Amino acid sequence: MRERKMYKAGDIYLTKFHPSYGDELKKFRPCVVLFDQIDSRFVTIVPLTSQAKIHYPTAEFILKPTSTNNLEKSSLLLCWYLQSFDKKRLQKKLGELDKSDLLKLRSSLKQLLI
């Protein structure tokens, strides 16, 4: 029996976003895991993009590369682009958010969802 891999909030994974349709995100890109507790087959994520121009200040913020997150360049965290999909799309763990960025993400999500 295969051991169930646990993902935790703030983990950053290289993720397969294709196939996609229309203006949806495409290709491989990093994402931040929000949670995986609801259904063992799925994970909910927030994607990152290297297009670091903020369009929605309350729903996006820039992550700068650190030794903890292991990002190659500054990336925009798209808090408004919540997505749930099969865990098989998560390819490789890159790093994790530091506590201050995780708090910022949670604050953005609260503003969006309330």
What does this structure look like?
There is one protein chain. The protein is mostly beta strands. The chain has one domain (11-113): SH3 type barrels. It contains one helix and seven strands, in the order E-E-E-E-E-E-E-H. The protein has one helix spanning 99-113, and strands at residues 11-16, 28-35, 42-49, 60-63, 75-78, 83-86, 90-96. Strands 1, 2, 3, 4, 5, 6 and 7 form a seven-stranded antiparallel beta sheet that branches. The model has no long low-confidence stretch (mean pLDDT 87).
CATH architecture: Roll
Approximate helicity band: 10-25%
> What percentage of the residues does DSSP assign to strands (E)?
35-45%
Calculate the mean pLDDT score and round it.
Answer: 87
The CATH first-level class comes to Mainly Beta
- Could you name the ranges where pLDDT drops below 50 across 5 or more consecutive residues? none
Order of helices and strands: EEEEEEEH
End-to-end span in angstroms? 41 Å
Look up the CATH topology: SH3 type barrels
Beta strand count? 7
Structural class: mainly beta
Rg over alpha carbons: 14 Å
Number of discrete domains: 1
Largest sheet: 7 strands, antiparallel
| Mass-distribution shape | globular
